[in-house]
Amino acid sequence: MKLNSVLEYLETLDSKTKNKIITLRNTILNFDSRITETISYNMPAYKINKAILYYFVYKNHIGIYPHGEAINYFKEELKNYKCSKGAIQIPIDDEIPLELIVKILDFNIKTLENKEL
Fold first, then answer.
1. Considering the domain boundaries, does residue 1 fall inside one?
2. CATH number for 101
3. What pLDDT was estimated at residue 116?
């Protein structure tokens, strides 16, 4: 199914997961007024000119896609999660670590700004 908006995506989620994702979404959007949301690669994407974070809900986990530099930088804080080069897997029944997500957003925005200089 091709998604047209994040609100449309939210409607595909069960109520328990939907509430978690709404909290995640609000955390992201409230972090920096320049952040915009869109659908990219058929998942919610958050951008300031370029993508800084994506997420997607799977059967057993929530995938957070913040780019590899952030995962490497926060590897100690991410040690309790399954991670790959570009993804963090949060078990579906766990709370989303919002404080860590905020740190990752801050890191990605600063990294993006430094690359644009």
1. no
2. 3.90.1150.200
3. 63
DSSP at 94: S
Q: What is the CA radius of gyration of the chain?
A: 14
Q: Residue 117: in which H helix or E strand, if any?
A: none
Q: What is the pTM of this model?
A: 0.93
Q: Which amino acid is at 68?
A: G
Query: What residue ranges of the chain have pLDDT lower than 50?
Result: 117
Query: Which DSSP string corresponds to 8-71?
Result: HHHTTS-HHHHHHHHHHHHHHHHH-TT-EEEEETTEEEEEESEEEEEEEE-SSEEEEE--HHHH
Predicted pLDDT at 117 = 47
pLDDT at 1: 76
**Structural domain includes residue 62:** yes
How many residues would you count in the chain?
A: 117
Judge whether 43 and 54 are in contact, CB under 8 Å. Answer: yes
Give SS3 for 95: coil
**How many domains are there within the chain?**
1
Residue 46 resides in a domain? yes
- Here the tokens at position 67 are 């780019």
